[in-house]
Amino acid sequence: MKIHRSLLAAVLALQLAACATTPAPAVSSTLQGDAAHPAQTQNWVDTKLYFGLGPADHPEQGISEAQWRAFLDKEVTPRFPDGLTVIDVYGQWQGKQESTPERLHSKLLVIYYLDSADNRGKVEAIRAAWKQRTGDQSVLRVTQPADVSF
User: Fold this and answer.
1) What does the alpha-carbon distance between residue 112 and residue 129 come to, in Å, rounded to a whole number?
2) Residues 6+ apart with CB under 8 A from 30
3) What's residue 38's pLDDT?
4) Residue 5 pLDDT more than 80?
5) Which range (6-10, 33-37, 46-50) has the least confidence?
6) What is the DSSP letter of 34?
7) Which residues contact 31 (CB under 8 A, 6 or more apart)?
8) HSE of 16 in the Cβ direction (CA atoms, 13 Å)?
9) Centroid of chain to Cα 58
10) How big is the CA angle at 54 (ends 64 and 121), to the nearest 5 degrees?
11) Nearest residue to 148 (alpha-carbon basis) of 48, 46, 79, 49
């Protein structure tokens, strides 16, 4: 039985060594041949927009999930139909007239897009629509260059 275990251990060691030295076949993680998602993306950016929905401790006083989805459907999706990400977040904001920060239930909207005047205008239109709809003073925008591959 001891020889059998030793033989089994040696066979397993050889198999593991073969796995470690055999290179995996080359697979492209880039979507090819799709005009909407070109193989190489250049001049793309990652924009994050932070939307305050209302007091974290009293969500009933703020924007409901249904109201948020209606805003997303009306203002965001038509401008960026190829895709976006929404994440529930918690944050704090101290407005110009406030003496202490306000704790907020918030949404983080992440959009990747080709950096162009048209797309930057779409982002600003989304921010303006939210401020007009809610009376909020601000929608935080963070934009960075992005290396994107589909």
Assistant:
1) 20
2) 39, 40, 149, 150
3) 57
4) no
5) 6-10
6) B
7) 37, 39, 150
8) 6
9) 26
10) 85
11) 46
Residue with tokens 């305050």: 52
- Which two structure tokens, joined as six digits, stand for 22? 């055999």
Q: In one letter, which amino acid is 147? A: D
The predicted pLDDT at position 59 comes to: 76
Instruction: Determine if residue 108 is left, alpha or beta; phi over 0 gives left, psi from -120 to 50 gives alpha, anything else beta.
Output: beta
pLDDT per residue over 47-84, tens digit each?
A: 999 999 988 888 788 899 999 999 999 999 999 999 99
Structural tokens at position 57: 């401790």
Query: How distant, in Å, are the alpha carbons of 41, 77, 110 from that of 107?
Result: 27, 15, 10
User: Do residues 63 and 54 touch, judged by C-beta distance below 8 A?
Assistant: yes
